[in-house]
Structure formats: C-alpha cells, structure tokens
Design brief:
single chain, Jelly Rolls, 18 strands, 20% strand, metal-binding, zinc ion binding
Length: 432
C-alpha cells in the first residue's frame, strides 16, 4: 500500500477508534482513498456518499448522533509501557477479568482521589488546592473577563470545525506572545489572540510550579522529557457555560511542549466529569475512567499521559453536575504548560506553509510505537502530505535554545518517507 493510503487509514483510526482496522482499510479501498467519502460511510454506512456533513465538532468527537457502528476493541501491538506498572511491584496496576473482544466495551470505572493514581499512575489530584478566598476571587475574575473568549477553530479532513466551549490563551512574556503571533499568523487559531498572564494567573502559577517540581523530583525522567525545573509559561483557559458544552476525546498538543510534557489542570466552578480513556495494548483492553473534578482542585498530568491516553469533558444533564454557588453551572478550567524554546524555534512548516504538529505513533506497528512525528495540521480546501519523523530533526533540536535556526519550508525528502501505520494522535490546542 502507498504512504498516502496508510496516512488516510491512520487518520480514520484516530477519528473512529471503535471501528476495526480491517473495516477502515476496506472502506478506504472502496472509495479509492477519498477521505470525505470514507468519513461519510464510517459515520453512517447506510447514507449516500455524497451527503454533506455538518461541520460541527460534536459530530466528530463530543455527541455522536447515532451509536457507534462497531464496538470491537482497539489493540496496540506493543507491550504495556513501563509507566503503566506499579513502581514497586512491577505489576499491572489495574486488574481485569478475562476480556473478550467480541463483547461490549469495558464499563467505565468511577475513580476517586484515593483510587486515581493506583489506576492511572501518570495522574495525581489535589483537592482544595488554594485558599478558598483566593480560589473564589480567581473564579469571579475569569467569569468577568470571559466575555471575549473565543470558540477555537481547526481543520479536520479539510473542514473547518468549531469547539462548543470558549477558550483564551495566555503567555507569560511579551516575547512569547510575539513568537506565537509570528508562528500562527493567518492560520486561524486562537494563538494569535493571546494575552499576558494576569496577576491572578501568576498567583496561581507559583504554587503550581512548586507542587509540580516537588513531584517531578521523585519521578524518573525520560530522555525526551524536558530537563531541569518545570515553570509554566503558557496557560489555556476553557469555559463551559452550560452542562451541554463539552470537549471530545483528545490529547493535548505537544508541538511547542515537546515529547512527554507535564501539564497542570486547575478547575474552578461547577463540578464536572473528567473522562479518561486508556488506549489498548496487546496485553490489556482499552479502559475508560470517570473522575469528578470539583472547584479548587488541581489535576497534574505527568508523562506519558498525552501519548497513551485520551481525555474529554462529556456533555451532561443539569442534574448530573454539582453547581457552584458563584458560577452555578459554569466551569472554568486553566491548564498550565511549559513550552520548550528549542521546539518553538524548530517547528517545521508543511507544504501548506503552516506549522506542522507533533504527534505520537501508538499503533499498530510494534517497531514504531512511542515514536514521534510531524504532520500537516490540516488546511482548507485540502491538506498536504507532509510527514517527518522527529528523530530526523533531533540534530536541530539538540542545538542550544540561545542559537535557534529559522526553519525554511520543508525539503522534499522530509515528506517522502512511509507514514506510520499508527493511530495519529488528534492533538489540538484545547484541554479539559
């Protein structure tokens, strides 16, 4: 099969995780590799191929209008990552009964603060993180200033789609804001509407930095992970005004953070469900976990959460959420991240002349599992075929951040290699 065929299959596997690989491959072959036609068939096998799809993000991720057509389990042909093992006993942390791929998917497991880390080792949570008065003041400020927050737009299969919730991106310095503007000019992303950290955000950031660094000092660091102390210099605010507003399964963007990032997620306002989806391996099935995130709680996502899990904030009924005395049904979420200068300086541009995105290969070819690659983020009316392994650019990234090179447009050799037979992570600039 051609590299284009494999890229199409990989993209569809990401969009339709419950569809079997054989079904996806058969569909792609039947429509001669046309993405739009394949998407329509997988969304509704009985629909006419030429039916137009409404470009609403909820129809792709959040609230499907019909049940999944195929409930078979998704397998990754790899051994379970070491991070899934208990550090002392070296045993799988979650014990499962015998699993039959032909049966219904595993029922979601409701986690508590006490059972979170034993089941998902790369997550920790702290309740009542800040003094109550400080947390309530921060909530009021976020609600008052959220009037100009926007709905993020991005491209999926040559269609521009819009998130159902509102976001605002903050940067720690003026220099960082200029870098983002230079990178994302005319790309239609929220990055060009960044604001500086407010005093309130700085006051939240400082104790988060301390907690994250204390935790990192006790964890084994991966060679690709950011070395040294962690200091948040980017924050993404998300506002869910009603219980119906949601965000679908995704992993957070790693393009500017680099591989194996640590991200701290701070919740204000209404208590909502945070849904965690562990991807399947050849030894354990996929598993969904639900965790309630109350007001003034801090969730820290350590590596390799973005690589081997997906997360979402599902739509809920009003009676299913715990309203807050100030925010009522609204929930504000602030995710603090640390960008890495060398990754910022050496983001390649695809053939569309836009910044490529960094993703993880996580299925099904065993030799490529866990590797990273750059790919076109998507464009309208058509995306390009740009593809480049991260390992082929490490010589640039290993240069000092003080001497960055300005990247030219991708050379032809960078997008001629075979695309990975993997589930390409759908990483967008959003987070629960």
């Amino acid at each position: 099969m051609s590299a284009t065929f494999e890229r199409t299959v990989a993209a569809l596997e990401e969009m339709f995780p419950q569809a079997s690989q054989s079904k996806i491959r058969t569909t792609v072959a039947a429509v001669n590799g046309q993405l739009d036609a394949a998407v329509e068939i997988l969304l509704d096998p009985n629909a006419k191929r030429k039916r137009k799809l409404k470009p609403d993000i909820r129809s792709y991720f959040g609230c499907p209008s019909r049940p999944p057509q195929d409930t078979k389990k998704l397998h990754i042909d790899s051994t379970i990552p070491s991070e899934f093992l208990h550090p002392n006993k070296q045993l799988q942390i979650a014990t499962f009964e015998s699993w039959n791929a032909a049966k219904e998917p595993q029922r979601p497991i409701l986690l508590t603060p006490e059972t979170l880390t034993p089941n998902v080792p790369c997550l920790t949570i702290q309740m009542d993180f800040l003094p109550a008065d400080q947390a309530n003041a921060a909530l009021r400020e976020m609600l008052e200033t959220s009037g100009d927050w926007i709905r993020t737009k991005w491209v999926i299969f040559e269609r521009e789609v819009e998130s159902p919730h509102h976001t605002q991106l903050y940067g720690a310095t003026e220099t960082q804001l200029r870098q983002k503007e230079d990178l994302y000019t005319n790309t239609g992303t929220a990055a060009t509407k960044m604001k500086l950290f407010t005093p309130t955000l700085h006051a939240i950031k400082m104790p988060i930095d301390d907690v994250v660094n204390r935790a990192l000092s006790t964890r084994e660091r991966h060679p690709l992970e950011a070395p040294g102390p962690w200091h948040a210099n980017l924050a993404l605010g998300n506002l869910y005004k009603t219980p119906e507003q949601s965000v679908g399964p995704h992993s957070d963007t790693m393009t500017e953070l680099g591989p194996r990032p640590t991200i701290a997620s701070y919740t204000l306002g209404a208590e909502r469900i945070f849904r965690i989806k562990r991807l399947a391996t050849d030894t354990t099935p996929a598993q969904t976990f639900n965790l309630k995130l109350p007001h003034n709680s801090l969730l820290i996502m350590f590596p390799p959460f973005q690589e081997f899990y997906r997360h979402e904030v599902p739509a809920q009924q009003p009676w299913q959420i715990k309203a807050h005395e100030i925010a009522r049904e609204a929930r504000v979420n602030l995710t603090f991240r640390m960008t890495r200068p060398n990754y910022m300086a050496h983001i390649p541009r695809c053939q569309c002349n836009k910044p490529a995105v960094l993703r993880t290969a996580n299925r099904p070819n065993k030799k490529n599992v866990g590797e990273y690659f750059y790919i076109c983020a998507g464009s309208v009316p058509a995306s390009c075929t740009y593809f480049c392994w991260l390992k082929d650019r490490m010589h640039l990234l290993e240069q000092t951040a003080n001497e960055p090179k300005k990247e030219a447009q991708a050379s032809p050799t960078e997008h001629k290699g075979d695309a990975p037979s993997t589930q390409a992570s759908h990483v967008v600039d959003k987070h629960a």
